[in-house]
Structures are given as C-alpha cells and as structure tokens.
Amino acid sequence: MSVKDPSQEPLISAKGLRKEYGAFTAVDGIDFHVNKGESFGFLGPNGAGKSTTMRIIAATLTRTAGEITVLGKDPEKSGPEIRAHLGVVPQQDNLDNSLTVEDNLYVYGRYFGLSKKYIRTKIEELLTFAQLEEKRGVKVEALSGGMKRRLTIARALVSEPEILMLDEPTTGLDPQARHILWDRLFRLKEQGVTLLITTHYMDEAEQLCDRLIVMDKGKIMAEDSPAGLIKKYSTKEVLEVRFGSDRNAQYSDQLRAMCERIEVLPDRVLMYSDDCEELLHQVVQAGMAPTTSLVRRSSLEDVFLRLTGRTLVE
Amino acid sequence: MVIKADLTRKGSLQIVDVPKVLRNGSLYIAQARIWNMLQWKWSIAGEAFANPMFYLLSIGIGIGKFVNSHQPTGIDGVKYLVFLAPALLASACIIGASNEVMHPTLEGFKWNKGFFAMNATPISANQIANGVLLSALARALFGTLIYYSALLAFGGVSGLRSLWLIPATLYSAAAFAAMMLGFCAAIENSDLLMNIVNRLLIMPLFLFSGTFYSLSTMPKFLQFIGWLSPLWHATEIGRWISYGHHISWQAVTIHFLYMTIMLVVGLFYAHHHFKRRLSK
Question: Which of A20, A238, A295, B266 is the most exposed place for a label (fewest CB within 10 A)?
Fold first, then answer.
C-alpha cells in the first residue's frame, strides 16, 4: 500500500478530465491521482474509456475539458518533456517487425537521446529481463506472441522510465506467458517504478494493483485497493449454483430470501454471503438440488457486477 | 529455476536528454528507417543498377540511334542520349524518393503502427515526418549516384558542371516526396487511392513532362500537365545544367521557385496530418 507523503505531489493528477469524439463521450469528467511508486489500475470492460485516459496521460491525445498534470506538467504543453519519462506498452505490439530483437531496443533507445554506449549495456540487461537472450539476432516477425509482448515491455524500459504504462498487458497471452509477465512487473514495482495498468482481467488487477479505479462508460464507479473494493462492495464469499437454464430464474425469489444478495446470470446464480458453506447447506435443505455448486472468495468481478449489473468480460 | 533478471536503475530523469532529442529527433527516425531499408539492401541495389541499364540500353541507345539518324543536328542541339539523360535521372530520383515515403507512411500509421511507437517517446510528429523524408532522400541519393555514374559511362553526361545535376535532382525529389508524404498521411482508408496515384499520376508525369521529347512539341492542352509536373521543372533545370539548354534566368528562377513551393507546402501539409493522426 502506498502512503501519501504530504511533501510530495502526486505524479499524475486529473480533475474533471473529459474526452469527447463528436457526440460520443469516451471519458466523462473523471478525477484521480497516482502517487510515486504506486501500482495503479484502471479496471473496466472494453470501451470503458481506459485506453483513452492512458493516451491523454501519455501526451498523445488531447483532452476536451478538465485538468491534468503528469510529473507536474500539462501534457498538451509539454508533450516531449513528459514522454521522456514514460515507458508505454500499447494494447497492440507496435514493434519494428523487419528489425531484430536487439535492433528494436537500440533504435528505441536512440529516440530518447540515450548514448550508444549506454544503450549497448542496457540491451544486455533487458534481454535477460525479457528472457530473450537467445533471440537477440532474430527478426521480430519470427517471435511468439508472448515474446513480442515481453520485448515491447523491455523496449519501454530502455529509458528507465519514471512511469511504466501498460495497456491490457496480458490480453491474448497463454497462462504461462501471463505469469512470466506478472513476475517481471512485480520486480519493477519492487524497484520503485510507478505502474499504470489497464485491464479487463480481475485477477490481473488483484495481483498487480495497489489501488485501482473501476470504470464503466467513461465514468469512475469506485476507487480503492482491490481488498478494499471487495470489502466495500461484496461479501467475503460467493456461492455459485447452477440449476439448468430454466430453473435458475425460477428459484431466484427463494434464493434471494436466503442471503444478502443474489445475481442471476444466464448460466448460473451467484449468492453472496460471508459463510457460503452454510448457505449451500440451506439451499440443499430447502429441496433445491443444484446440478453444480462452487464456493469461492469474492473477487473484483463481483464488485464490477455489483456496481454495473454487468460482467467484465462479455 | 531462478532467473537473475534485475535491472540497474538510475531513472529517466537522470539519463534522458530531451534537448538532444528536440535537436536530433528527425535524424534518429531517418537512421531507423535506413536500418530498415538495409534489410532490403540487395533488392534496392539491384534496382538501382538495373533501372538505368534497361533505360539506357533500350531507349537511350536503341531509340537514340533511330532518332539521331533521322535528325543529324540532334534534339535541342545535342545527341538524343544527352537530351534524355537529365530527364531519366530526375524521374528515377523522384520516383525512388516518393516510393520510399509512400510505403513507410502507410505502414507507420496503419499496418504496424510504428509511428505511434515513435511518438510515445520525446520524438514529435513533425520529426517523424521529417525523418521519413530524409531517409527517402538518402535512398534517392544512392540511386542518383549510381544513375549518374551509368550516364557518365554511356556518355549521357560529361564535364564537371554536370555534377550539379545531383543536388538539383535531389531537390526536385525532395519537393515531390514532400507532397507525397502529405498525401499519404492524409488518406486513411484507401489503398486503392494509392494505386490510382501510382498509375494515374506518377506514370503520366513521366510521359507528359518532356522526358522523351521537348514539351513544346506537344499541343498546348497537354503541355499544362508538364507545367504542373515537378519532373518537367527538374528536367528543364537538368538540361540547362548538363548541356546548356537555352532558358532565361527568369525561367530558371521559376523552376526553382515552383519546387520550393512544393517542398514547403508538402511539408506543411505532412506535418499537419502527422500531428492530426498521431493525436486522435
């Protein structure tokens, strides 16, 4: 958890931030701040306004209204000065496919005005970090998805940025590749790098973020630590029961009376309570025999469902 | 398995040199583009050698022999190959440079979005545009040097004065490539439009710019294509430099002015669209 040091201004602070595209409002007047060393997340479904917010922070998109400072500067006035201290990992890898792994890192380092000597040394470290030492001379087009992702992250680190911004860092990766990436991001966090992450994966947000905002339709629905959000908006445990698609809705009134809250999804019913083993016992006692049942801890998915009435991944 | 993978860290505030990037950013982009071209070095070199060979052997010498035998005084007072040489040089240089801005611009905005990666650093939109143009000119310079050497070997150019063809030709290539850079940045969804430009703009420029015969032998209504074409202006200047083709100093000034306007307007337009597309 980050503790706010009163002597220190937040690295990023936004007030009433708004972005409109014609009649469509992508970001609808949001306030937030990010402190140094913090790992800060934007959680929300596709189209919630996360990437738009990220691009405004990264000084590559102009805002329609509101205030924002990044490292104490206005991104619209000091684009190059701000971007000099950001490492940006976009949603889609935009590496130079016809150059080798090593040359991609080298060329990118030059864009920050780094000396050739410095970059050459840094490349060795980054290749180890990204586990790409054996691929150094290989053209990017021949790499797997996970390798490209790691290279994109390594590339963003060539300038040792103050803030590393990751837009959906693990979308499209297999579980093993995701865990390697998470491990790398943890190491960076331990070194005091401020991380800014957008994701629509609740497990990713829980793993990586100290604090996060939940976004939907351009607005902030809630803000807290993952544990804090779960405590505030959900129960300790969740019971998932399936009765078959017809009967899920049919039993809903009966189920609702047995616990704090239920959510009826197309394929299952979620029942919220602090003691779900006991709850399951009651359900069975009442003569409703679920075809499957599962007791689990509450997650951010439940928080999102509570806040918006929708699931994150649709 | 434990992997030793910690990074040393001073932090960007210590190591990134923003003023240096503000000064040299365009050169960094050009360098990256040239590295990229070097992936295709054999095909680029092959084209640079083959192109002048084909033209010089077929048109310069083949047709030249035919023209010279029917017109013993030559065209414009010189042998056909000498008349043709500055035009061939300019057209190869202009087409080479414009290809080298068209493809990377489409790729950078659309196909692999590399321009967005460049713009995520202190590099600005204008520097990306300038860098692409510079790298295209570097390639055009390479092609021009080879073409010029071939012309020299075949007797199409001669004398120290003809060396001035090289910078003059590059200047015309810069003017045309700047326009193409702006155009490619402006179009967003149309590869078709690109093909139309290639076939219906560049090809006629080559045919109607007084390349193979003097523009004044054409009917007036076709001559205006030549007046608009940077290739005609470049060819006129090239002939003036190469063998002293008679034109007034006012005409020389107008030719240079026309190309300068193209360069300035093209760059302005390119900067505008690079900025617009990278920040939306």
Answer: A20
Q: Are residues A34 and A168 in the same domain?
A: yes
Residue B171 has pLDDT above 60, yes or no: yes
Q: What is the pLDDT of residue B273?
A: 96
Contact criterion met (CB below 8 Å) for B266 and B182: yes
Partners of B132 on chain A (C-beta within 8 Å) are: none
Give the A window 247-266 contacts with B, CB below 8 Å: none
Does residue A171 lie in a domain region? yes
A51 and A163 co-located in one domain: yes
Angle subtended at Cα B152 by Cα B147 and Cα B156, rounded to the nearest 5 degrees: 90
Q: What is the count of structural domains for chain A?
A: 2
Q: Which of B15, B21, B280 sits opposite A111 (nearest CB)?
A: B21
pLDDT at B72: 80
Domain of residue A160, residue span: 12-230
Model pLDDT, residue A247: 79
8-state DSSP, A133: G
Kindly identify which residue of chain A lies nearest to residue B113, measuring between CA atoms.
A94
Asked if residues B11 and A162 have their Cβ atoms less than 8 Å apart, the reply is yes
Domain boundary among A195, A214, A230: A230
* E strand or H helix at B246: none
Question: Domain for residue A311, yes or no?
Answer: no
Cβ contacts of B39 on chain A, cutoff 8 Å:
98-99
Q: Which run of H or of E encompasses A25?
A: strand A24-34
B62: exposed, middle or buried (C-beta count within 10 Å: 0-12, 13-18, 19+)? exposed
Q: Quick check: is A3 in a domain?
A: no
CB atoms near residue A20 (< 10 Å): 14
How, if at all, do strands A24-34 and A12-21 pair?
Answer: antiparallel
DSSP character at residue B62: I
pLDDT for residue B48 is more than 90: no
Per-residue pLDDT reduced to its tens digit, B196-255: 777 777 777 778 888 888 888 888 888 888 888 889 999 999 999 999 888 899 999 999
Q: What is the residue range of B262's domain?
A: 35-278
Q: Which residues of B touch A124 (CB under 8 A)?
A: none
Q: What is the ipTM of this complex?
A: 0.87
> Would you state the pLDDT for residue A164?
96
In a domain, A106, yes or no: yes
User: Which of A63, A110, A123 is the best residue to mutate to test the B interface, defined by the most B CB atoms within 10 Å of its own CB?
Assistant: A110
